[in-house]
User: Fold these one by one.
Assistant:
Number 1:
Amino acid sequence: MDNWTTSHDRVLAQRNAEGWMFLIEAARDLRTTGAIAPSSKALARLLTAPVQEHGMQPLNVLEAGAGTGSVTRTLLPRLSPGSRLDIVEANGRFVSQLRRLVRTHPRLVGERERIHVHHTLVEQLDIGHPYDVIVSGLPFTNFTPAQVETIMNRYMELLHPGGILTYFAYCGTRYVRFLTASRAEARRHRAVEEVLADYRRRYATGCWTVWGNLPPANVWQLRRPLPGAVPAALDIAAGVAL
């Protein structure tokens, strides 16, 4: 058996283990897990694209709602030397897996002291420095409108002026909720969408659709304005089908 085959089998085993872990945690508490499968590579690449776009400039990066680390694995090789990454996760079982990922990832030789995994809610994170990029994997549609407002406001507080926030939303959830949820749940979901739509109107700079995710997802990119800047209107006609 050659090294490629051994490595390929190891990756497949890891993906299967992550998939089962997501299903188990979703069954325990879908409100904090928010998904039934890890994010795809295509979704992870779009979410972390702003980190790569900075080139070799050292960055302060925050990943919130990292889950089992499917996006983290794409993010780590994109960090330039000297960058700091804070990873926030509320699920204790996922936190253990994320810390193991940081300890063993070959890309982090000599850089591990710059990677920190925090077992907390992002609203309670108080590191004392702003971020150039925030990557959010939080399941907004599982929260209350007030929670979403608090989280989005905190994201904007944590960003440098000119800093970028990326987050994703599954396609078609509004229609699924309309067909399957109670009236109260449907109202809550609509109110969450209204909160997110308000932030998109003020700060969005791009939106792309990832068809190769389970389920398909839209990736949104928001920018905290520079002082005195007037946000430009966003044309969302174009997207990327992956």
Note: The CA atoms of residues 123 and 150 lie 7 Å apart.
Number 2:
Amino acid sequence: MRAVAAIAFWASASLLAFAQVGYPITLWLRERVLGRGDGEGAPPDADPDDDLPSVTLIVAAYREEDVIAAKVANARALDYPQDRLTVVVSCDGSPDDTPQRARDAGADLVLENPRGGKIASQDAAVARASSDIVAFSDANAMWEPDALRRLVAPFADPQVGYVCGNVTFTSDAADPDATNQEGVYWRYEMWLRAMESRLHSVTGGNGAIYATRRGAYVVVDPIMGHDLSFPFTFVQNGWRAVYAPDARARELMVPSIEGEFARKRRMMSHAWPIVLRGGLLRLDRVPPRYAFALFGHRVLRYASPFLHVKALVAGIAWVLGGGGAVARLLLAAQLSLLGAALAAGRVPAKPLLIARYYVLTTASIAFGLLDHLRHGTQAGWAPPEGTR
């Protein structure tokens, strides 16, 4: 019994360690040993005006009357030839004044769709587009002036079908609920994304700033978000999905860790259908380098809450079965992580907040699966509280 518990613990702990530490170190060592090769994924310089493709910038909106005018103004202020840029606000049955405010702010086209979810609204806008590139953004994401030039530059490579940009999450430091540690995680995520892009392709995107070739755009199930489904689907279709770090946007994050847990729980209810039936697990359909990235970054990450539970149960069984000092030390480490997460509710010290963020966002993966299995996933969506 003791041996079985020890084996179960080490198997789970090893996979967790590889997902969080081993995988990024492997990518880092690959670049140090082999170099960056021919510069795969490196963002080229922005093209001069004469060579820029036509772009339709699509903003899906639901109850965005407070921010939509500023978003349209931000799009209009981009350093991009206006005769090659079409700004479309695609409203998802928005019950407020979002459509009129978008028109008043200068959007080229405002669609008032029946309520069907963000993806359905984006699909409707793409169906009306005639541009070379379709770009997408959230209503509360503000782009830097050169962001669109930087975002479309990688499409000069005919193998590139999808490009995601670099979003920075900001918070109001004066907000007493501003405990969210998403910024720490996101810097780590962007570091991984840059290395994955150079390896072959990214394994995830973000809703704040991304683009595809219009002819390569993929219509997915409305309950499945683009952030996870697009990169691997484009790779399966023979394209590369790359990261343009110089295409920058900023977006207000959910103030509290608890709010971030709720946001990620909702996101994971949309992600699990992609994992279970959307093709993410079909690693045989992508090049080996990219299959390695999907396994290390996505498959193991979504397995992490279950691996943590297995490691904890096995650790307890190992100690109760007569495990020695090593077993007790490892169990103490696991319990300390949980204790730190609990303590952060009373003592908001940075290390404790990071522990709480990690525990709750990891738990959100399992709760998202539970929600999907119990109630299904609806295509509808709403802006998270505190982000507008």
Note: The radius of gyration is 22 Å.
Number 3:
Amino acid sequence: MDDDEDHIAFAAEYALGTLDADERAQAETMMSVDQDFTAIVRAWEYRLGVLNQMVGAVEPRPELWERIQAAAGLAEPQQPIVLPAPPPPPPPPPEQVIAPATPVADNSVVLLSSQARRWRGVARLTSALAAALVAMIGLELFAPDLLPDALRPKPRTRVVEVKTPAPTPVPSAQYVALLQGQGGMPAFILTVDGATKTFTVRKIGASSPEPGKSYELWLISDKLPRPRSLGIIGSGDFTTRPVLASYDTDVINNATYAVTIEQAGGSPDGVPHSAPVFAGRLIQTVPPA
């Protein structure tokens, strides 16, 4: 039996009241957190309620309630009936054949016989109700089309979401340029992603510019009429910008990248105002896939 059928049977037993204390507490905990399980329990309570209406009420005899009170300690237990001892039979006359005695039915025997018949009737009624319930559960699980419309379970639709795994990213070409001055000491490392054309400047040896000044990165190519500003280099260790996306790949790969010292915030007119202090060209470090 799969998990759904286990849940349905568990909910039916809860609605029928046949679970022990631990199982009933477990079912109530599941109802507080699982709306689907709660709906199944409510459906069973409705079906069993309809079945209960089909069975007529049976009024127990007054003696049954007195016995329940006595068993629960709510009334004094009935004293057992003590019958007087029968007198001893007279001695038989000599050579007289003793006929077997006829048993005398007393009130206690009649009462016990009546109670036994009554309990047998209750047992037969309970067995019939249990058999009807078992038959209904069997039809519910295996042949619901045979049930009346009022007792037929409503179909449930389960939506299964199938997630397609994300495609494995394809590594793109990577380029790097070492921007250094005349002394040969590297000041910045420039890396460019071949797919996104995003560049990252890593400060490694350059000192901070003078107060009121900023480092500005330029792209210099013989295919462009003048140097193009790529923005100022931030004060942190890394500066990343996507501004190369508007340039052709051939221009990006064959250009010279230079750093000048401009006023704070960069050149105001898009033209460098000092000679480059650091420069370098890109080389490919990772080929495209």
Note: The first strand starts at residue 174 and ends at 180.
Number 4:
Amino acid sequence: MESLTTERPSKLSHCRACASDRMFLFLPMGNHPPANMFVRPEEADEQQPSFPLNTQACLDCGMIQVADQIPDGFFTHYLYIPSGARTMHGHFEGLAKVLIEKAEGGLVVDIGCNDGLMLGFANRMGGKTLGIDPAANLAEKAAELGVDVHVAYFHPETADKVREKHGPAQVISTTNTLNHIGDLVGFMEGVGRLLAKDGWFVVEVPWGRDILRTNQFDNVYHEHMSEMSLRSLVKLAERTGMQVVDVTYLPVHGGSMRVFMRKASVAGEPSAEVVRMLAEEDKAGMNSEETFRQMAERVEEMGEALRALLARLKSEGKSIAGYGAPAKGNTLLNYFGIGPEMLDYLVDRNPLKQGMLSPGVKVPIHDPSVIAERKPDYLLVLAWNFFDEIRQQLSAYEEAGGRFILPLPFPKIVA
């Protein structure tokens, strides 16, 4: 891919949500490979492309963000699928029910539909649905669930094509996709073109307040260009003829929010929950340099503590593996410099990642069945957002004396 060498600015001069120029660089993490660019074993000796990962915060809206460093076309073959975690099945079934009720028989369009898990539930509830996703390999998986996918990046032109063929969408949803978008204003323009006049736009993303509070620096990677505050979405909506009218707090992914928007002409007043969560962001100091500076200090302390813990365990002759090969885990491993000298291997339920090496530090990835075979003394849980599910699945491992290490919000061995 020639475009891998394309140079782009490594820092933002203006916030991509609210256009403020009050950008504060608080955690420069050096060069990282794309967090989902897994390596084939036969390519282990080849140098991966890497790009600066400079974590900035907008001091007007509180959005954490990195510059768009990912080459064009990167998401046309994608390796993350939500269906690997049982937690997400129940979550997306609940979301599908909400969207079907909002649609009242109209078209539900899910942008970044991935393998079609959520729309599959919506279809079984009698919904009229369409997915939009650039990853052709995932569209094939979605088709197996009976989900129709328009394979394309979402742009205003895409919106026009879809509306011409399928009519306006009564509900447009996007879950953990908006944070992958570099041109948020262009994306919202597309939403406005495709959405019915009285329709709903529903966004799910991790909540920046919780990212800040629990040191989730690993949620930042090149593909995750933005970690959003509610205020950033309020201001983005205002810039693009929309308005935030409601929000629901969700515990998934370490704390997320489901944000409901409508066109400003039909929006009405925001709910009390919108007002409450905005006040929570103000209380957390999401417009203060000092707040983000303190987070960066905590991250450095976390890294030192985790490396020291792993080094001590290895010096005692203990075997350590990692559970999960998520993008967030790859940020953590690369920034903290944790590789095969500390972790014998990783395991991941996603078959698309098994047999590969993790980006950057190149730790081999296996099916979780190797845990029962090799019986590692410790498992570093990189997919910490699914720890409850992982612990339940590995109850026999724990009963036999195996132990878990959680890296966030501060490293600890789970007792």
Note: Residues 61 and 231 are 5 Å apart (CA to CA).
